[in-house]
Each structure stands twice: as structure tokens, then as C-alpha cells.
Amino acid sequence: MSTRWFPGRPGLLKISVAALAVAGLIAGCGGGDKDGASSEGGTITLTVKTFSQFGYEDLYTQYEASHPGIKIKQENIAQLGDYTPKLQQWLTAGSGAGDVVALEEGILVKLMAKPDQFVNLLDYDAGSLKSNFLDWKWNQALTTDGKKLIGLGTDVGAQGMCYRTDLFAKAGLPTERDKVGALWPSWDDYLATGKKLTAANTGASFYDSSGALYQNILMQQGDTTYFDRDNKLIVDSNPGVRKAWDQTVAMIDAGLSGKLTTWSPQWNAGFKKGTFATIPCPAWMLGIIQDQAGPGNSGQWDVARVPGEGAVRGGSFLAVPTQSKHPKEAAELAKFLTSPDGQTAAFKAKNNFPSSPAAIDSAAVSGAVNKYFNNAPVGKIFGTSAKSLKPVYLGPDNQVVGDAIGDALTAIEQGKLKPGEAWDKALSDAKRAAGK
Amino acid sequence: MTTLEHEARGEGTVVDRRRRARAGAWSRLDLHGSPYLFVAPFFVLFAAFGLFPLGYTVVVSLHKWDLTGDAGLIGFENYSTLLADPDFWNALLNTLGLLVLATVPQLLGALILAALLNRPIRALLFFRLGVLIPVVTSVAAVAIVFGQLYGRDTGLVNGLLHLFSVGPVDWQASRGGSWVAVASMVNWRWTGYNALIYLAAMQSISRDLYEAAQIDGAGPVRQFRSITVPLIRPALIFTVVMSTIGGMQLFTEPLLFGQGDVSGGSLRQFQTIAMYMFEQSFQNFDYGYGSAVAVVIFLLTVIAGVVNAVVGRMVRGGTQ
Amino acid sequence: MRRRTPSGHGNSLVYLTLVVSLVLSVFPLYWLFVVATRSNDVVGEFPPPLLPGGNLMDNLQRLFGPEAAEAHFARGLLNSAIASVCVTVSVVFFSSLAGFAFAKLRFRGRNVLLLSVLATMMVPVQMGIVPLYMVMVKLGWQNHLQAVIVPFLVSAFGVFLMRQYAERAVPDELIEAARLDGCTTFGLFLRVVSPALRPGAAVLGLFTFMGTWNEFLWPLAVLEADNPTVQFALSQLATQYYTDYTLMFAGTLVAIVPLLVVFVLFGRQLISGIMDGAVRS
């Protein structure tokens, strides 16, 4: 009888023995062979934390060759959305941020309110490098009292206006890029062009979605947007904001928007199928358009100047966190990577458009053409756009307020709110977000 | 093993009996001590790795704490802000709505699937593997596939609706549309998962019971209601509790549906409380406020669990 | 004798339901396979292509080749395999033990302890990341694989699942009889209880393996790109602004294969459970 309870197959017994063995094997499970000590035998290892593609690989090799005793280790995270929580975790835990850390514009602006987690680069003779950077780029990382510099600019999201030549031809509009640029000296002219294209029934919308457009218009409206220099919320009193809003709403009303969610599969596919005729495009977007539209559409896309005076969206900085054990060496490396030569090299490697006027004027950048875009002189187009933009002060809560307004615009596009309601909602959301 | 079997057969000698007397103290210790030993590993590891994060979150929630660190103790200010925050209440409404839309069809579907898979059918492993596949599929793939399905202009669902002269529906834009779409993603991903839990429970029901019922003339549906469902009650309770916890923490599916937008649509029409927490902590860097949201999510989940238990007891009382 | 098959009419209805569920479940995976065998221009196409193309080998080569070197995909597969096996074995063992204790043994504080196990699951996972990372910093485990293993060697989900399963699957008479035979409690667990728990343990093992394999947030937080898990490596295949869908789907496809193997292994346990005489009451 009793033997019935002792089955012959001790499957779980084996497993449990294995489980007990696991306890001893855990050390053996650990596969990470990270060299914890950052300096041994006179060699200093500097860790550089980046996201997306900074294009620094060749620069590291060059720097290691000219600086014996320095080794560089880059730890990159592909997407900003994954990198941002990690950054916060490093800063909160006081460990992990490495020696040089990349800060995207939105994050840097936020950090400027209380920049004590980063070393003052002015203490490491960065002050003399001011002329290496576009004024507004330099000022973004400088505290308002001018006493502390927490970051050195890397790239800027200088913008052009990408457009489909075949759709323009179908609508009887010029297709050559200078003539296309001449169609829209101002955003009102852009709107008028859009109406013509829409009237021609090409089946395509004039642009993809309104968020990016609004952002471009806003940045051309003067030296402040949602906050004044004392970080007081002026979203409801700044006429520039209202003007950018009204202009965007006028375009939605005219039926120019494709109402596509950015990065959605439909949006991606739109580049190939010609779902929309124009899209404001930062330098790095050219690669995406080429990949998404495919070799079959070579020459269908071209790039012209943006309406208004220059446009820039985003860009990044390099900073040295106070948790670095080698701030001096780290600051030297950051200076090297953001030097005009460093920025030119990064542009050659990954199309990151420089924030340094000298780099913008260098032959490698200003002479750059893009074969896929009908040999467009992209270096010149983006360079002009970056240099003609007047500096704009953003303020630490810029992004939250910007999101509130962007969402309200989307709600208008979706037909969920009337423009008036959307504006009221955006204002109250903005006030709440900024007051939190 | 041999000694044990000897003892079991009661063939003990005097020595054996003495040994057994000594074993009496041992066995008392075994009887009263072992249970604690068995559950100890969980609590030891939880104490090592779970307790600190828990306490830390509570402490942070009482501080003003942003990206740059601790800016001072502020007591319950984060909580009072939260209670007056319409975005929080909106997220809570979305979470509860999705909880109902996603849990009920999911568990019913799982129960039916499990009952079918518990029958002697051909290609059993194949079917079991098939229904579990959604759990395996990576989130990136889920996002793209459902993006295709619920596309406004070229989506397959709108294509189907068009056949019945309905639509096109902008699934992202409206509360109802986005809820249906998100709930369908949740249901798709987790129905097979729950079916497998039910299936495992059904496997422990003796076939004799069904045979006896069959002799008594009970049909399959009757057998299912009077034998299967009562006998897998622990598994049912388990899935209801887990779905409730999962529903209160719903995060991935609505995030994917909105192409990674943590605000859950232009009017926050499908932002859940877990997304709101993530938005506050990791996008707006308001770590103190985000921690307060986390603590509130925890408390709400506890309440939902208690409600579950009470309703469960009432239902049981009603059927008896 | 029992009838092995239901009546013809009911039977076809059963198959119809199952086939429909199967198609709904499998279609996205099939579509994943289709994209993995094609080139990038099919994404977002309408109607979507339904037949595989000829680019699978190309895409796999790209996945393991220099183009995707920064994703360290092979390393990610190995790391995830090690972590998933360690975690699964441990969770199944300790959960069975604790679940059995909670379901079938009487001890003071049992209900309170069980409720506290349940409560630990109600804490939203995303918030624990920063403090848990701080613990890892203290231990010096940043970017070490044990950081994604050791904290997960037990699971509240597992304890609860096995507790619920053991409640029905282990008859009390069985335990009493074994006790009378002089089994120690652990002996009882090994010889009597664990065979009865096998189907439940198989489900738990399966879910734990999949859960560990698909875990993303925590590995991303504590590891770095040169020593990733498989999901971390997959996320590194996309850049900030551009998603190479075919590469990513090829990677996803490769990442699913081990899960299917594990499923077949555990699935056998799940089916054989009922045949075991030990479970009969």
C-alpha cells in the first residue's frame, strides 16, 4: 500500500537538488566582468554615457592615442526614452553616471534650476571656448547669473523643410528647392501653398501632424516662450505663444494636417507612400526618410529652407557629473569631443549637425550634399537655419508646458475640442503642471 | 528509505522503538518548525531586496524630490496635491474602466478555452502551445501588429467595420474607442495565460467524478458547472486576484497603443494610474510626487483586493 | 468504459472554437515571421503582406554581424538563458515548498504571512527600480548578471499560485497517511506532495521562465549595453529615431525560439500530470 505514495520518478527531487546547487552556483551565474576600478597602474578609464548615436568612436581612438594613460569606455543606450529614467536613477543613487554624461536639451533645461549634481566647467577653463558655440547654445547651459556652466553643446536639431517633388509637380507647384523655398518666406505663405496643394486633390495631406510645425513657429517668436528669465509662467501673456498657436490652428482649419501620430507605423509608411507632402526635418531625419521611403523613391524627396527665420528643435550637451572621480580628465575629454573638429567628425560619422559656427563653416559640413535628396546642399541649408535662429530662453518646466499645448493641438486635430476650448484647457493644464 | 519502509510497516525492534521515541521530540519540532522553514526563503529574500525599496518609496513620497535630489520634507503635501489633481482622477477612472473591460472577457474566455483544451482532442500540445503564444510575443511586435489593426486610415479593424458601413473610427482619439482597443490588447495577451492556469487545475480533478456524472446522465455543460468550476475554485480565486492586481498596475499595453506616449492620448483618454506615476517620476522628474502616486496605487490595489474577497464571499454564500 | 471522444456535432464545435482562438493567437507571431523574412518597406503597407519573403538569412546575418555589434545580441541570449534557468529552478522549488506549507500545514501566523505575501505583489514595480538600484550599488552588482537573478529567486506570484494549486491537488488523507508512515515534513514534500504538484509546477516554471526572459525594465536599469539580457539587446537594435523593423523582428523571432523549446518541455509535464496514480484520491 504505502509504496504507492513513493512514485518511481523523482522528477521534482532532481529539480530540487539542482535548485540547492543553484544557491552555490549563483556566483558562477554572474557573467559581468566589469572592471570596477577606474584607475589602475596609472591608467585612468573614463566612462562616457550617451544615447542614440553620438558618432564618437573614431574620436575616442584619436584621444587615447594622444593622451597615454587615458582609456575611454562608452556606454550607449539606443533610445532616449530608456536613457532618461536611467539618468535619473544614476543621479538619485549617486552612482552610475560615469565621467562624461550626455544630456538632451529638455533634460538640461530642467536641470538648470538646480545644477549642483554637475561640475562647473568654468572651473576647468571652459570659459575661453565660448566662441566655439552658437550663442544660444552656450547660454542654455549657463546659469542665469553667468557663474556656472554645466554642459558643452554637441549637436543642434537644425531644420529644413522636406518635401515630395512628385506631389508638388502634380499640384502644379515648382519642384526645384530654391523656388520651393521662395514659395514660403513666412508661415502665412506656407499656409497658402498648402491650400493650393490640397486643392489639387493629390490624395496627400500637406504636412504630417501639427506638433512639430507649432514648435518651429514658436521658436521664431522672440527670446522667450512659456517662461520669462525669472522662470515665471507667461504662457497666457506672451503674444508669441498665442501667435504660434493661432497660426497652427489656421492650418488645421484649412485641412492641411495629415493628423498622423509621429513614429506610428502609418507615419513611417507615409514617407514611402507619399501620404504627406512636407515635413519639417532636422538633419538627422534625412537618414530616416531615406530608410523609410526606400531606394525606389530616390529623388522624390528634397529639402528646402523652412518658413520664417531659421529653426532648431532639440540637440544635446556633454556634462561632467560631480560623482566622477576624475573630473579634470573628464572635462578635458568633454572639451575635446565638443570642439569644432570633434563636432565635424561627429557630423561625418552620424550626421549630427554641429552647434559650433566654426564646424558649420568647415568644408566638411558646409559642402555636404545628400545624394538621395537630389544632391541637396544640406550642409548649407541646415547651417543657415541654425545660424539665423535667434536665441530663445526656455525655462526648467518648458517640456511639461509644451506637452500640454501639443496635446491640446492634437485634440483639435482629432475633432475632440474646439480651438477655443483647447486653448483654455492648455492654459489650465500648463499652470497646473508648472505649479506642481 | 529502507529503514523508513520498515518502520512504516511496523516491524520495529526495541531499538527502533527507542529511536522512535527520540524521534518524537524531533517530529514535534519538525511539525511545528518546518512550515516556517518552508516559507522562510521568500521572506528572507524579500527582506533583503524588497523591503528597502518599499520603505524608500514611502519616505520619498513625503519629500519634495526632483531630478536634482531631495528638497526637504513636506509631509503629506504630495498626497493632498494628488487628491485635488484631476489628471489623477482621470487616470483612476481609465484604470477601473479598463480593469472591467479587460478582466471579465479575459477570464471567461480563459475558462472556456481551458475546458475545451481539457478534453481528449487531437493535436493537444499544438493547440495548447498556440493559445499561449501571445504571452511569448515581444512587446515591440505587439505594438506594431496592433498599430496595423487599429490604424485610423488603413487598419484592418476599420476595414472590417466598413463592410458593415460603420466608421471609420479614430481609435486613439476617443475614450470609448481607445478603451476597447487597449482592452482587446490585454485580453489577447493574457487569455491563454489564464487558460493554462485553469487547465493545470482541471488536470487535478479525478476522471472518476466525470465518469460518475456521465453515468448519472449529466451532459458536458452540466459537468462543467457542477464539477469543474467548483473544483477549480482556488485557481479561479488566484486568477481574479492576479488580474485585479495586474489591472491596477496596467502599463505596457496602453503605452504601446499610444506609440510610447505616457500621457495616454491627447486628452489622457487612456492614461492609467501606473502611466501617470511613470510620467510624473521619470518624464517630469517629480520623483516625490510619483512616489506618492505609487503609494496610493498600492493602497487602491489593497482596497480592490478586499472588495474582491467580500464579493467573492457573498457570491459563495449566495450559491450555497 | 468512458467514451474517449465527444459526439460528432459537439466535436466540430470544439475544434472550430479552438481553431479560431488559435488563428487569433498565432496571427501576430506569424506576421512577425513574415516581416522577419522580408525587407523594411513592407511595414505599414496596406494590405499587409501575408506570405514570407526570402530575406530571413540576410536579416539573421545582420543580427549577429558587425552592423548590430553594439546590441551584443548573442551575449544577451546567453545572459538571459543563464538568468532564466537559475530563476526558474529556484522559484519553482521555493514556491512549491512555501505554497504547500501555506495550503496544507498548520502554523501560527499562517494567514497573516500569506496576506503579506499577497501584499508584496500590490506594490507597483516601476517605483522600486531606483531604490533597488541603490541596493545594487551598495553590493557592487551594477552591470553584473547576479543583479537580475538573486532578487528574483523567490516570487510572491509563485507562492500564491502553488498555494492555490496545492489546496486541491494534494488531498489531506494523502498527507495524513504519509505522516503515519513516519515521513518527516520535508520527506513528505519530496515524496508525496511534489509529484501531485507537478502540473502546477510546470505552469509556474513556464511562466517564470517566460517572465524572466521577457523582463525589460530592471535589466535596463542595472545592466549596461555591453552585458545585456535579450530584451535589452533587442531594444538596442532600434536607434532613437529609426526602427529597423526587419532586424528587430528577426531578433524577436530568434528570442522566441528558446521559449518554444521550454514550452514543449514543460508542456509534457502538464499533460502527464493526470496520468499519475499518485494524484488520485
* Head-to-tail CA distance between termini of chain B: 46 Å
Supply the CATH class of the largest domain in chain B. Mainly Alpha
Q: What's the overall average pLDDT of chain A, rounded?
A: 87
- Percent helix of chain B: over 70%
CATH superfamily of the largest domain in chain B: MetI-like
Tell me about the biggest sheet of chain B? 2 strands, antiparallel
Give the biggest sheet of chain A: 9 strands, mixed
Total DSSP helices of chain B: 15
CATH architecture of the largest domain in chain B: Orthogonal Bundle
How much of the sequence of chain B is in beta strands?
under 5%
Which H/E pattern describes the elements of chain B? HHHEEHHHHHHHHHHHH
CATH class of the largest domain in chain A, named Alpha Beta
What would you give as the CATH superfamily of the largest domain in chain A?
Answer: Periplasmic binding protein-like II
Backbone CA Rg of chain B: 26 Å
Order of helices and strands of chain A: HEEHEHEHHEHHHEHHHEHEEHHHHHHH
What amount of the residues of chain A lies in strands? Answer: 5-15%
Oligomer: heterotrimer
> Which overall shape of chain A is indicated by the principal axes computed on the Cα atoms?
globular
Give me the secondary-structure category of chain B: mainly alpha
Provide the helix percentage of chain A: 40-55%
Count every beta strand of chain B, where a strand is a DSSP E run of 2 or more residues. 2
Organism (chain A): Kribbella sindirgiensis
Pfam family, one (chain A): SBP_bac_8
Keywords (chain A): Signal
Protein name (chain A): Extracellular solute-binding protein
Write a brief caption for the model.
The complex is a heterotrimer of chains A (436), B (320) and C (281). Chain B is 75% helix and 3% strand.
Topology of this structure?
The complex is a heterotrimer of chains A (436), B (320) and C (281).
Chain A: H1 11-29, E1 39-40, E2 43-51, H2 57-66, E3 70-77, H3 80-93, E4 100-104, H4 105-111, H5 135-140, E5 152-164, H6 165-170, H7 177-183, H8 187-199, E6 205-207, H9 210-219, H10 239-253, H11 265-273, E7 276-282, H12 285-293, E8 301-304, E9 312-319, H13 327-337, H14 340-350, H15 357-361, H16 363-366, H17 378-388, H18 398-413, H19 419-435
Parallel strand pairs in A: 2-3, 2-4, 6-7
Antiparallel strand pairs in A: 1-2, 4-9, 5-7, 5-8, 5-9
Chain B: H1 2-8, H2 14-49, H3 51-61, E1 63-66, E2 69-73, H4 77-83, H5 86-117, H6 124-136, H7 139-149, H8 156-163, H9 175-203, H10 207-215, H11 220-231, H12 233-248, H13 252-257, H14 273-283, H15 287-319
Antiparallel strand pairs in B: 1-2
Helix pairs in contact in B: 3-15, 5-9, 5-12, 5-14, 6-9, 9-12, 12-15, 14-15
Chain C: H1 8-36, H2 56-64, H3 73-104, H4 110-121, H5 129-139, H6 156-169, H7 172-180, H8 185-196, H9 198-214, H10 217-222, H11 230-235, H12 245-272
Helix pairs in contact in C: 1-12, 2-12, 3-6, 3-9, 4-6, 6-9, 7-8, 9-12
Signal peptide (chain A): 1-21
Protein name (chain A): Extracellular solute-binding protein
Pfam families (chain A): SBP_bac_8
